[in-house]
Write a structure and sequence with these properties.
Beta Polymerase, domain 2, single chain, globular, alpha/beta
Length: 353
């Protein structure tokens, strides 16, 4: 059997490439059910976030066969003509184990040490469990990776401080518009990222925070913790003309904010610009919105410069974290060899499809 990870991420693939493969909600679960019924893929977990889409497989196929079959399945089942996997990466067996450990620990993230990825991978694992696509091998792999990530969090400083894509986005907003105290900010989406954005805004001194979400109870729960004014989902577009910043972090399958939604306020934006921050993949904001004068649009890939600050310190901590992970990864790899899950004579290295 081979353990294989095939993926695309922020290191080498643009947001446009990543959103083509992005999977969430019912589409994700339908895809997992498809792979659960696919005899060639014995086990499958799909991790899909704003910065990466990765397919973890336990399969009897060779590396070349697995990658080819995966591409064909995505094209046939999801009708994705260009998967972009040719520009992605493949990790096999030992390297797949180490890669997942690093991903769960935030060591492969744009913001090194960020903690959102742990919860996102856990949600991906739970989705695979629900749909029957995760068996004994991937169950052991992911459970061990979660424990390893907790060890890193406890015994290193790699994630110390306010480390998240949400905090980086709010920091960038402050640099662009200045003090947030008098700014009117609309947050679209009240999930994990939306909640972190709201918290970061409050900590940055924003006093006029509005939030809308399809499920209004999520907004009400958020309002009970922070000074947030709830906005009904069917009413938020009417508030755009009064906003200075809009932060989008929904799990919608396509854009929710179109250029046409902003054009009625073009005169206002020309004299009082608006900053749109799109943290979603697939993107929530239609890219052509940036063509309106006074509209500044940033997506998740635009935060690399802010995320790279204090990088030298974080890289030192990353080295310490990797040293903590290595014996834990080796222990699991040895266990897999002992069980015959991996073949001792077939040592693996990362490759490209």
């Amino acid at each position: 059997m081979n353990l294989i990870c095939v993926g695309v991420d922020h290191h080498a693939n643009s947001v446009e490439a990543r959103e083509r493969l992005s999977l969430s909600g019912e589409t994700l679960e339908q895809t997992l059910r498809f792979f659960a019924a696919h005899r060639s893929f014995r086990e499958m977990v799909i991790v899909s976030t704003c910065n990466r889409v990765e397919f973890y497989m336990a399969t009897g196929m060779t590396l070349r066969q697995a990658v080819s079959e995966l591409k064909g399945s995505l094209k046939d089942f999801l009708e994705i003509r260009d998967t972009g996997l040719e520009q992605g990466y493949v990790h096999r067996n030992e390297d797949a184990v180490r890669h997942l450990f690093e991903v769960c620990s935030g060591l492969q993230s744009m913001v090194i040490g960020e903690t959102e990825i742990f919860g996102q991978v856990k949600e991906a694992y739970q989705a695979a469990k629900r749909t029957g696509s995760c068996g004994a091998v991937l169950n052991r792999l992911f459970q061990t990776a979660f424990n390893a990530a907790k060890e890193v969090r406890t015994r290193s400083s790699v994630g110390r401080g306010n480390v998240s894509v949400a905090s980086v986005a709010v920091q960038a907003a402050g640099r662009i518009v200045g003090s947030l105290k008098a700014k009117h900010v609309l947050v679209l989406g009240a999930g994990d990222t939306g909640e972190k954005v709201t918290q970061a805004l409050a900590e940055a001194g924003a006093a006029h925070i509005f939030c809308a979400n399809r499920r209004n109870e999520r907004v009400l729960a958020l309002a009970s913790q922070h000074a947030v004014e709830p906005v009904r989902w069917d009413e938020w577009k009417g508030r755009l003309g009064a906003m200075d910043i809009v932060v989008c972090s929904t799990s919608a399958p396509g854009s929710i904010l179109a250029r046409a939604d902003l054009e009625p306020h073009a005169a206002r934006f020309a004299s009082r610009p608006i900053l749109l921050i799109d943290l979603a993949v697939p993107r929530d904001v239609e890219p052509s919105a940036a063509q309106i004068a006074g509209v500044c649009l940033l997506n998740v890939d635009d935060f690399r410069q802010v995320a790279s600050e204090n990088l030298a310190v974080r890289l030192r901590e990353r080295g310490k974290a990797l040293a903590l992970l290595e014996p834990l990864a080796e222990k699991l790899i040895s266990h897999f060899y002992k069980l015959g899950v991996l073949v001792q004579s077939d040592r693996a290295r990362a490759a490209r499809p």
